TrEMBL record:
It comes from the Bacteria. The lineage of its organism: Bacteria, Bacillati, Actinomycetota, Actinomycetes, Micrococcales. This is DUF2130 domain-containing protein. It comes from Curtobacterium citreum.
Length: 408
């Protein structure tokens, strides 16, 4: 390898073969030094890599040897365990076969017993099914008969008599229970058409003190199967609500046979979401709705009795106040009339006094004139009258001259 000598004055390189010294500048010297260092680094690196590779191969060989020995140990142990397991498995299989045989025998016995019980139950169920089928057949026959009778009844009804027949049905049903359930109640046709319309029937019930505590306006609607234009229950609710308000009823009930196939109108249907305190019922629930509403109102009898009593007291007080107001009004009117007449009389008196005072003034003025006239009359003499009037003076002189006797 080339020997490199570095001095402060110059850079010298000595050839290893001929031992000749070469002098180079600083830049080239640094470049050569770098090359030498790189070669030495690579050489050392390869040596170290080779050593590491040898160490790794030795470790791998040792690990493989150790793993092989361990695998042989494990394989030997596993084979022993497998043999033991096979022996245990053969023993368990024998025990399972015995257990299965016993279980099959017991199961077959239980199965036979269950079959016997099932046969008995099946016979009982068949008997129940037969009885139930017969019962259903009877119920269906009764329903079919009821439907046939209903259809026959509707077929016989005339168009004009449909509603009347339903009204008559409800009236008869009510009258059958009137004396038992509604002894104080009133139920009759609404004949008051002063408000423009009228309902079909009005129900009112009273307490023993004759205080009304329940009232219902009824409307009955029926329709023939052959009617061309089918009406709906909601078509009649507005009029029913108006009739309820006009007649002062608390509840309104539409007894209807309309919309027979509707799932909504099957019994008692509350339609108070459309109109307050209103129900739509089928005819068979006519008495039921009366009983429900009446019983619901029974709790209010005490309150309504007290309210009616208070109302009567208020009416008495109101009547007294009205009579007192009437008396005060009549008295005030008479007082006003008397006062007006008194004021008119006072006014007339004042006017008369003014007129009398005026007359008095005029009379006083006349008296003064009369006095002046009297004074003037008193002061009047013939001399004053004839002053400046010789003719009149001569006349008065002649009158005042004594008469001369006539010459004989």
């Amino acid at each position: 390898m080339t020997e490199i000598t570095h001095t402060t004055e110059s850079n010298e390189i000595k050839c290893p073969h001929c031992e000749t010294l070469f002098t180079i500048d600083e830049a080239r010297y640094a470049d050569i030094v770098q090359q030498v260092r790189t070669i030495e680094f690579k050489t050392e690196l390869h040596e170290r890599l080779a050593a590491a590779e040898q160490a790794k191969n030795a470790e791998i060989a040792l690990a493989v040897s150790n793993a092989t020995q361990e695998a042989l140990k494990v394989t030997t142990t596993k084979d022993a365990e497998i043999q033991q397991l096979k022996s245990d498995l053969r023993s368990v299989a024998t025990d399972q076969e015995l257990a299965v045989a016993k279980a099959v025998s017991a199961t077959e016995k239980n199965l036979n017993e269950a079959k016997s019980k099932l046969e008995v139950q099946a016979a009982e169920q068949r008997a129940k099914d037969v009885a139930l089928a017969q019962s259903h057949a009877k119920e269906l026959a009764m329903k079919d008969e009821l439907i046939d009778r209903y259809k026959e009844m509707k077929a016989k009804l005339s168009v004009k008599m449909l509603g009347e027949t339903l009204e008559q049905h409800c009236e008869v049903e009510f009258n059958r229970m009137r004396s038992l359930a509604f002894p104080n109640a009133e139920f009759g046709k609404d004949n008051d058409a002063s408000a423009g319309t009228k309902g079909d029937y009005v129900f009112r019930d009273y307490s023993d003190d004759h205080v009304e505590y329940a009232s219902i306006m009824f409307e009955m609607k029926n329709e023939s199967d052959t009617t061309a234009s089918k009406k709906k229950n909601t078509d009649f609710l507005a009029k029913l609500d108006k009739d309820r308000n006009d007649k002062g009823c608390e509840y309104a009930v539409l007894v209807s046979m309309l919309e027979e196939d509707s799932d909504l109108f099957t019994g008692i249907t509350d339609v108070s979401h459309l109109y307050p305190k209103m129900f739509v019922v089928r005819p068979q629930f006519f008495l039921a709705i009366i009983a429900l509403l009446r019983n619901a109102a029974l709790d209010t009898i005490v309150v309504k009795t007290e309210l009616e009593h208070a109302k009567k007291q208020n009416i008495d007080i109101t009547d007294f106040e009205s009579e007192l107001d009437g008396f005060k009004s009549a008295f005030g009117r008479n007082y006003q009339l008397a006062k007006d007449k008194f004021d008119a009389a006072i006014k007339e008196i004042d006017n008369a006094i003014l007129r009398l005072q005026k007359v008095k003034g005029e009379l006083l003025g006349s008296e003064n004139h009369l006095r002046l006239a009297n004074d003037k009359a008193t002061a009047l003499t013939v001399k004053k009258l004839t002053k400046g009037n010789p003719t009149m003076a001569a006349k008065f002189a002649e009158l005042n001259a004594p008469e001369q006797p006539d010459a004989a």
